[in-house]
Design a protein that fits this description.
single chain; 480 residues; alpha/beta; Aspartate Aminotransferase, domain 2; Aspartate Aminotransferase, domain 1; 3 domains; four-stranded antiparallel sheet; 13% strand; binds pyridoxal-5'-phosphate
Length: 480
């Protein structure tokens, strides 16, 4: 067999692609693999064929090239059919039981929480699942966090320390209570709130910590509980991205003074929209229940509002759907964990991405799967290359909340800048890039993708195959 490099160079092409690898003629850095040798042999037996030329179609050479050329470069994708989609029946376990439950509610004519029994039943089942004394069902995850913040009853200008890596629902309740979100930096590996950063941002105005469980994995709840206790402030767990997450043997949602969940259409427990607040404090539960129901003490004959509340009531239809989902939640989360494990085990040893290190004692419920990309690779290109293979990874997740116009432009109440500037504070609170440098830095290497309970193991295999294909291609390019 001739020396493969010489052979290719003799072919007279200046640029060619072999097994997905790009070559320049006479490039001394070319390393030939066994697979390449096989192609060379085939080409040798079929002289006159020029690799990469159109008349090559159907030859052994073209087949190998086509198999490994990245889809982003015109090759065939690993996956031609779309992955199961979060908001479609391809991915979400629901059907006849939900339809029967909805029919029952509609036939009863009792669609509101105070007439029917489904919301109350859901509250009981949710509280029991998490070992909480009370659950208050509300209309969304945002409403749940707002209810929790309002339950703490801050003064205007008081502060809540939270994460920059979340949905706006984590902070909108703080702003509606005319309080100030203060952003602490994150553990660069897990993206959970860093307790040391939280503690460094405590001031005499701090009224609480809101700890998100990013992508389904609890942050260090022992340490955050410790910070809250040392400073005599409540810990609010924002479990909107989580169900049955665990921290050191405790269910996430059972460690904070209050815990909030989202039942929106993308979440583990899908009621279309909905939320839940958990607490084991009778006092907090009473205030949360009132806040979400116009602060209306319903036991009184005469109607009045005790304080400024909201109507965040969940309706019976959402509760009926959620109750069915709750009966399957353990199975649902276990399946997501198995799928995530198959992917994370499958990509061990790749150089383009790696699995995040999960702290001992933390168990994610995998709302989203996140991976860390090799910092040397352009994250937009990488997400595009993997997505072109049919696996919809997105780059970066959200930009830090404090860089959003609502904060940078103080787009709150008219042109007032309230509550950032007000008679309730001496300073004028400003937001902008640089507040949480660790998160800003690491998100440049973050890839995220939703997971759902109806993914098959074959879907996980496709994810692994796509990542391996891109990995092989990049490794080869870096050799050539
Ligand atoms: C961490 C977090 N908090 C709050 C919310 C708000 O939940 P909802 O969309 O149900 O209002 C979300 C929604 O994605 C979230 O991810």
């Amino acid at each position: 067999m001739p020396d493969p490099v010489e052979w290719w160079n003799e072919c007279g092409t200046t640029n060619l692609s072999l097994s997905g690898r790009r070559y320049e003629a006479n490039n001394p850095m070319i390393r030939i693999t066994e697979q390449d040798r096989a192609v060379c042999v085939d080409a040798e037996q079929n002289p006159g064929r020029r690799p990469g030329s159109s008349e090559e179609k159907g030859s052994g050479i073209t087949m190998v090239v086509a198999e490994e050329t990245l889809a982003i470069d015109g090759g065939s994708p690993v996956r031609a059919t779309p992955m199961p989609g979060t908001t479609s029946m391809s991915s979400r376990a629901m059907g006849d039981e939900e339809i029967a439950a909805l029919t029952e509610v509609i036939r009863s004519g009792k669609l509101g929480r105070h007439e029917g029994s489904k919301v109350k039943e859901l509250e009981r089942a949710f509280a029991e699942l998490y070992g909480a004394k009370h659950a208050v069902a509300v209309s969304s995850g945002s409403a749940a966090v707002h209810t929790a913040v309002a339950t703490v009853n801050p003064e205007p200008g008081d502060e809540f320390i939270t994460t920059p890596c979340s949905d706006f629902g984590t902070v909108l309740g703080v702003l509606w209570q005319n309080a100030i979100p203060v952003f602490a930096d994150l553990d660069p590996e897990t993206l959970g709130l860093d307790p040391a950063s939280v503690e460094s941002r405590i001031t005499p105005r701090t009224r609480g910590i809101i700890a998100v469980h990013p992508f389904g994995a609890p942050p260090d709840l022992d340490a955050l509980r410790g910070v809250a206790d040392r400073h005599g402030i409540p810990l609010i767990e924002d479990c909107a991205q989580s169900q049955l997450g665990e921290w050191n043997g405790h269910l996430a949602g059972s460690i904070g003074d209050l815990a909030c969940f989202s039942l929106n259409s993308t979440k583990h427990l899908n009621a279309g929209e909905g939320g839940m607040v958990l607490t084991s404090s009778d006092e907090l539960a009473e205030r949360a229940r009132l806040f979400a129901d116009k602060a209306w003490p319903r036991q009184e004959v005469q109607r009045y509002s005790l304080f400024l509340g909201q109507n965040y009531r969940m309706n019976e239809l959402s509760a009926a759907v959620a109750l069915v989902g709750l009966s399957r939640i353990a199975e649902n989360v276990a399946h997501r964990r198995a799928v995530a494990k198959a992917i994370l085990d499958g990509i061990a040893g790749l150089s383009i991405v790696r699995a995040p290190r999960i702290p001992a004692g933390s168990q994610s419920s995998y709302w989203i799967l996140h991976l860390w990309a090799d910092p040397a690779i352009d994250i937009d290109w990488l997400a595009d290359a993997i997505s072109a293979e049919g696996i919809p990874f997105r780059p970066r997740y959200v930009s830090p909340l404090y860089t959003w116009p609502v904060f940078t432009d103080a787009a709150t109440y008219g042109a007032s800048r309230f509550p950032f500037r007000s008679e309730f504070r001496e300073d004028d609170v400003r937001y902008g890039p640089g507040l949480c440098p660790r998160y800003e830095g690491v998100r440049e290497h973050l890839l995220v993708m939703s997971l759902d309970e109806l993914w098959e193991m074959s879907d996980a295999e496709d994810v692994v195959r796509a990542l391996k294909k891109v990995d092989v291609s990049i490794r080869r390019q870096s050799l050539s």
